[in-house]
């Protein structure tokens, strides 16, 4: 175990400098695979918020005055720089939240592409205007302008990805950015801020860590914050809405989900088995907003599909626990202690509600890792599948955000749609079928911001990613970080 002197302390990035919080107070960062302290982060105060926002506002005037080409050049340089720091960032991220490294090797490619895509999109903003002949002597047109200072609030499950997709497009549009990472997973974001400050002018990107209860409302309600983009929970979105009511500003909310993954009798069953398992159980332990946590299977293939899923999950090669930096392991722990306790409580609730555990259900290092005492205090949860008959159970309606799913039988396409849409969420959905007509009907009628057919969770720079209903609204795209201005010139 590390001594206090060996535990590294990370810092905020404000105006291009690495600084501690004004109070000097810090918070421990816990490695969820071991349950042990491995780093310290600043506990910032309201005074730190003022300093940070002032830095971003001051930098905005010069950054927004740059040509789109020049801003794009900065962003391309960041994309190039990611390769030099990729391994370091991935290690920090997996120590933050427990995701296995293989997944983040893939995401490192995604991160680079997001910066490159944003760089290319920067020059498109100026071409998005419209023109109108308002009369014989009047000419009208529209302009797209940056908003000012954008606040990006990150979740603990995928900080590097959400940092990138929010910052890259906001910067491309000419805004400056303040990043507020989750206190449960701030280290990678703090280091990311340091790296980006090597390229960007001072104040263009700022990263400030701390408790949401201490600095969240101050950030959101600050008059110099011109837009807020949150990836997080519905409860946090409600708090942000209330806090910003006195100083109204546009909001982007990418929230939770209870996504259906629907398997029809004409699907390729082998591909569907792989698809529904990977959509919820590995490698992120179900801690992703788009997780396919409700698996709907047509009754004619229900028993066969369930048998194959159980066989697959019983294979010791399917789920391997341990060091999340070891690429031989396939699934990490739950990311923090409060979430671990929440997931455990939902497993208990599922049994109380009458759900039948098809596989899994065990928790804790003593059960899952008897030969790895180093990880015995980690927040491990075995992939768990409940068989239920009704979508009305709480484990079917409430987002668990862990490696816990329900499997529900259905008979007809109409019943599948009814079950799929019977939730307050609308973020994502999967459909497995060989019938092209059915695929299009399901895409049209499922109430969800993303529908994937014969695949799952295909996201990236090419398509927007947003939700319906309680899953939020808006997307982290370049036009979302601009405002439209109408202009009229009298020619007579």
TrEMBL record:
Q: Which residues form the active site?
A: 254
Matching entries from InterPro entries are given as:
Ald_DH/histidinol_DH, Ald_DH_C, Ald_DH_CS_GLU, Ald_DH_N, Aldehyde_DH_dom
| Entry keyword Translocase | no
Any one GO molecular function term: oxidoreductase activity, acting on the aldehyde or oxo group of donors, NAD or NADP as acceptor
One Pfam family, short name: Aldedh
Family membership: Belongs to the aldehyde dehydrogenase family.
Q: What is this protein called?
A: Aldehyde dehydrogenase
């Amino acid at each position: 175990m590390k001594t206090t002197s060996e535990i590294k302390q990370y810092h905020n990035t404000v105006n291009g400098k690495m600084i501690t919080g004004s109070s000097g107070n810090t918070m421990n960062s816990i490695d969820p695979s071991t349950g042990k302290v491995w780093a310290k982060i600043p506990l910032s105060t309201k005074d730190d918020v003022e300093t940070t926002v002032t830095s971003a506002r001051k930098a905005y005037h010069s950054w927004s005055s740059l040509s789109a080409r020049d801003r794009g050049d900065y962003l391309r340089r960041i994309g190039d720089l990611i390769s030099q720091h990729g391994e370091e960032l991935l290690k920090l991220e997996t120590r933050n939240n427990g995701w296995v490294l293989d997944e983040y090797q893939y995401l490192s490619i995604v991160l680079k592409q997001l910066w490159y895509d944003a760089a290319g999109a920067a020059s498109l903003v100026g071409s998005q205007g419209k023109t109108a002949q308002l009369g014989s002597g009047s000419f009208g047109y529209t302009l797209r302008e940056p908003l000012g200072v954008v606040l990006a609030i990150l979740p603990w499950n995928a900080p590097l990805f959400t940092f990138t997709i929010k910052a890259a497009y906001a910067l491309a549009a000419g805004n400056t950015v303040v990043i507020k990472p989750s206190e449960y997973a701030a280290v990678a974001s703090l280091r990311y801020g340091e790296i980006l400050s090597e390229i960007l002018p001072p104040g263009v990107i700022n990263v400030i860590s701390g408790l949401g209860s201490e600095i969240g409302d101050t950030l959101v309600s600050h008059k110099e914050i011109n837009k807020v983009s949150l990836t997080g929970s519905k409860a946090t979105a409600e708090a942000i809405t209330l806090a910003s009511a006195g100083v109204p500003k546009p909001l982007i909310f990418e929230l939770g989900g209870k996504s259906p993954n629907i398997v029809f009798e004409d699907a390729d069953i082998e591909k569907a088995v792989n698809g529904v398992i990977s959509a919820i159980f590995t490698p992120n332990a179900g801690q992703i907003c788009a997780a396919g946590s409700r698996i709907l299977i047509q009754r004619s293939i229900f028993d066969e599909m369930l048998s194959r899923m159980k066989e697959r999950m019983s294979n010791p090669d399917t789920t391997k626990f341990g060091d999340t930096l070891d690429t031989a392991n396939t699934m990490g722990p739950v990311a923090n202690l409060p979430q671990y306790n929440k997931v455990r409580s939902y497993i208990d609730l599922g049994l109380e509600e009458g759900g039948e555990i098809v596989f899994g259900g065990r928790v804790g290092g003593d059960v899952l890792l008897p030969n790895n005492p180093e990880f015995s205090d980690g927040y491990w949860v075995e992939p768990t599948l409940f068989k239920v008959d009704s979508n009305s159970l709480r484990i079917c309606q409430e987002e668990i955000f862990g490696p816990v799913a329900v499997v529900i039988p259905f008979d007809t396409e109409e019943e599948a749609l009814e079950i799929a849409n019977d939730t307050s969420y609308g973020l994502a959905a999967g459909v497995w079928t060989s019938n092209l007509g059915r695929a299009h009907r399901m895409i049209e009628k499922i109430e969800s911001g993303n529908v994937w057919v014969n695949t799952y969770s295909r996201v990236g720079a090419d398509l927007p990613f947003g939700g319906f209903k309680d899953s939020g609204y808006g997307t982290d795209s370049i036009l979302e970080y601009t405002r439209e201005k109408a202009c009229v010139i009298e020619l007579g």
